[in-house]
Design goal:
Elements (H helix, E strand, L loop, with lengths): L19 H13 L9 H21 L7 E4 L2 H11 L6 E4 L5 H9 L3 E4 L23 E5 L11 H8 L4 E4 L18 E5 L11 E5 L37 H12 L8 H12 L4 E4 L10 E6 L4 H12 L4 E3 L4 H6 L7 E5 L6 H17 L3
Parallel strand pairs: 2-3, 2-4, 4-5, 5-6
Antiparallel strand pairs: 1-7, 6-7, 8-9, 9-11, 10-11
Length: about 375
């Protein structure tokens, strides 16, 4: 077995490896100390400067000019919960994409909202041309998973926003930031949630959200902000409006390093798509991917025809060292849409550190696993 290969293909869960500078920046903060925005001595000034530099870089990444409208949080799930729970649902109705994660679906169900699904192709790609105005009647909020964490479909966010006009749009960018273009201002997005530990290659416990009009949301967590401390009310200005308590400063140090030192992809898209195509032609596999390769990100899934996704995953690991995830990936709605519920799939997700050699090894390992049939 070639130990020089990168056999970790579970980057849709959390990215690995990280740039070496991530750990270095985090250790430096642990050694130097300093909170965020709570005083004016050197340690805190330095920590605050790092947090704000990171906010600026995220603003550039997601196409936001007013970076103060970006609030840090601990992950996309927490960010999405704050947006949904802080939103004023007048009609109690939402429209969602057919590939939503439970980070969206569970908060919606907890509020008892009426949930409808946007029209879509069999791969979950939203059919903007079929968005009838009657479907938008009495809808409060539209929510779209930008990149599916199951089959990697990239949704046409700009076209969707244009079609829904003045209806507010929340985009779950968990699988897209750091991997595909994101233009919040240009696309006129109202809310966007992101995480630091996936495509950005940062540490866990980092993330946040962007809100175009902060007054459109009520804060759901109150506490100290280091500002307006003479009042029992939360500040109305950004980002303090949604940043109660001390943030994960050490994690944000690591996130800054991840953004600054993130490498370009070492693998070729042509090779990647050729592997998906070849696997799709194998009669013993169902491959879950975008119908149109132009809409394909670096995530896709496999479903062996015998349905034993856990056995297939176990065989890939024990025989070839391939690390992937099997199951529903916290996205039962997506699997119902893609007809792989309740067994789920074997998910493959790449890293910038993978090479064409790694992808070819993955390809051979999958084919050998199928031929062995021992899973």
């Amino acid at each position: 077995m070639n130990t020089h290969l990168n056999k970790y293909f579970d980057n849709a869960c959390t990215s690995f490896p990280k740039p070496t500078e991530v750990a270095e920046y985090m250790v430096n903060h642990l050694k130097e100390g300093g909170s965020y925005g709570r005083a004016a001595y050197t340690r805190i000034i330095n920590s605050t400067r790092v947090v704000e530099e990171t906010r600026d870089l995220i603003g550039e990444l997601i196409g936001v000019k007013k970076v103060s409208n970006i609030a840090f949080d601990y992950n996309a799930t927490s960010a999405i919960n704050k947006i949904i729970n802080g939103f004023n649902f007048k009609h109690k109705k939402v429209l969602v994409s057919p590939l939503e994660h439970n980070a969206v679906m569970r908060p919606l169900y907890a509020l008892g909202l009426g949930i409808q699904t946007l029209p879509h192709d069999n791969d979950g790609f939203i059919r903007v041309d079929e968005l009838d105005p009657s479907l938008l009647r009495n809808i409060d909020l539209v929510i779209v998973n930008h990149v599916s964490n199951v089959n990697g479909v990239i949704q046409p966010i700009a076209s969707i926003k244009e079609a829904i006009k003045d209806l507010p749009l929340l985009v779950d960018a968990s699988q897209s930031i750091g991997k595909v273009n994101f233009l919040a201002n240009e696309w006129n997005i109202d809310y966007a949630a992101f995480t630091g530990h996936k495509g950005l290659l940062g540490p866990t416990g980092t993330g946040g959200f962007y809100v175009k009009e902060p007054c459109s949301l009520t804060w759901t967590v109150s506490g100290g902000t280091g500002s307006n401390s003479d009042s029992f009310q939360m500040p109305t200005f950004m980002p303090d409006r949604f940043q109660a308590g001390t943030p994960n400063i050490t994690g944000i140090y690591g996130l800054l390093a991840a953004i600054k030192y993130k490498p370009d992809n070492s693998w070729g898209r042509k090779v990647f798509l050729s592997v998906i195509k070849d696997l799709s032609e194998n009669e013993k596999l169902k491959v879950l991917c975008a119908n149109n390769p132009k809409n394909q990100s670096d995530v896709f899934s496999l479903h062996p025809k015998n349905g034993d996704v856990s056995g297939f995953t176990h065989s890939l690991f024990t025989k070839f060292g391939i690390e992937v995830r099997s199951g529903l990936h916290c996205s039962p709605l997506a699997h119902k849409t893609l007809n792989t519920f309740p067994t789920g799939t074997v998910r493959i997700s790449l890293s910038p550190y993978h090479t064409n050699k790694d992808i070819r090894y993955l390809h051979e390992s999958i084919l050998n696993t199928i031929e062995m049939g021992s899973y």
